[in-house]
Amino acid sequence: MTTATAQAFANIAFIKYWGNRDNTLRLPSNGSISMNLDGLFARTTVTFSASFGTDSLRIGPRPVTGPGLERVSHFLDLVRPLAGMNWRAEVVSENNFPSGAGIASSAAAFAALALAASSAAGLDLSEAELSRLARRGSGSASRSIPGGFVVWQEGETDQDSYAFSIAPPEHWDLVDCVAIVSTGHKKTGSTEGHALAPTSPLQAARVADAPRRLDLCRRAILERDFESFATIVELDSDMMHAVMMTSAPGLFYWQPASIRVMEAVREWRAGGLPVCYTVDAGPNIHVICPREQAKSVERRVRKLTGVQDVLMAGVGGPARIVS
Ligand code: DP6
Q: 181 CA distance to ligand 1 centroid (A)?
């Protein structure tokens, strides 16, 4: 029997991943940029044993079977041959943030699983190897392996599609104030959504323009230029949602309260407050600002009609083994 426990932070994308060139390998149609979310993590223990007849999964107190377990089992099937073993595993995972809060739990979960499973299997993978492995579980999980501000280069093949850090957490003290407007489960998950992306006539234009947006966003982060950062982050989020809304079938994630938050954020910025929004595959709004403005932004967001709660997270470090 061998066991390991790992912890990984969730992340929020500033330049989004939407659509794959290869859905099985999770080779994305475009590169993406994110920051890890300090304090919002998944912690996962993997135990391999010759005596287990099947893989099992528990998330918090809840045993998971069906498609959830199959996805994890399929992922472990990538790890076992790397380590030259075929033992089944018990996977026990917990998130310290509410699921359905508009924070992709799959990113933290598969990053923690990649590290815990490979380590329990006796493998000592490099950061790039871990990121590639995590990518196979959930694309955005590739970005939760390195720390701080992270680029996932789209790559040409399985070998070169992985994420790396472009700046450590202390480079820029940004805060994500997540405005929760709904905790209901989303109707269409990301995996299905990626498969629909090519059906939008806007996706080709979005992908063709991605190198320009990636470059502007990377430069804005390196120069800590909030104004340029805000412009490109909002554009990228709006472009992804335009693709979502115009795919077949169309995916509409925004709710009336989501639009109220986005409108307020644009007004506050026009009034001189450094703040911007970005939205993933759900109705909750990630409101990003420098630490100095975080208290004031949180107060303002809480007052908006339809906002149920606000979660706060700074910039997080890399995935790591915890014992
Ligand atoms: C909108 O990584 O959750 O959050 O690879 O199918 O697990 P799978 O998808 P996932 O997609 C994330 C989509 C997004 C944008 C982003 O995080 O880049």
A: 20
Contact between 94 and 43 under an 8 Å Cβ cutoff? The reply is: yes
168 C-alpha to ligand 1 centroid (Å): 22
Same domain, 135 and 220: no
How many Cβ atoms are within 10 Å of 144's Cβ, its own excluded?
34
Judge whether 31 lies within some domain.
Answer: yes
Report the alpha-carbon distance of residue 238 to residue 32 in Å, rounded.
15
Sort 238 into a burial class: Cβ within 10 Å, 0-12 / 13-18 / 19+: middle
Domain that holds residue 80: 2-169
- CATH number, domain containing residue 227: 3.30.70.890
- Do 71 and 203 fall within a single domain? no
pLDDT digits (tens, 9 = 90+) for 2-59: 999 999 999 999 999 999 999 999 999 999 999 999 989 999 999 999 999 999 999 9
Task: Answer yes or no: do 122 and 185 share one domain.
Answer: no
Tokens of 123: 């493998």
Domain boundary among 114, 142, 169: 169
Determine if residue 38 is left, alpha or beta; phi over 0 gives left, psi from -120 to 50 gives alpha, anything else beta. beta
* Domain count along the chain: 2
CA distance 12 to 251: 20
- How many Å separate Cα 142 from the centre of its chain? 8
127-137 vs 105-120: helix crossing angle, rounded to 10: 120
Q: What tens digit of pLDDT does each residue of 69-115 get?
A: 999 999 999 999 999 999 999 999 999 887 766 677 899 999 999 99
Cβ < 6 Å from ligand 1: which residues? 13, 16-18, 26, 32, 104, 106, 138-140, 190-191, 194, 280-281
**Ligand 1 atom with minimal separation from the 110 CA:** 7
Provide CB contacts within 8 A for 183, sequence distance 6+.
Answer: 98, 100, 101, 308
